[in-house]
Design brief:
The structure is a single chain. By secondary structure, this protein is mainly α. The protein has one domain. Helices cover 59% and strands 0% of the residues. Helix 1 crosses helix 3 (36-56).
Length: 68
């Protein structure tokens, strides 16, 4: 099966890794050193950031943002 193109930019991934406290593990470009929990935290943080950006642009309401 063909690999999908990444949706998240490398810049965003490194920025989130720094915010979450595991940048030191990925600074050499090897993302294989992070735990499954750290990977999940990265995805969760990216989703939350995207939802905040969409809410700020008026694309979604806060109620939609919380799944209500």
């Amino acid at each position: 099966m063909a690999r999908r193109r990444g949706i998240m930019s490398d810049r965003l991934k490194y920025e989130l890794a720094a915010e979450l406290g595991f940048y030191h593990k990925v600074q050499d470009g090897d993302w294989g050193n992070i735990t499954t929990r750290e990977a999940g935290s990265l995805v969760r943080a990216a989703i939350e950031r995207a939802e905040r950006m969409m809410a700020a642009q008026g694309s979604i309401s806060p109620a939609q943002n919380k799944g209500l």
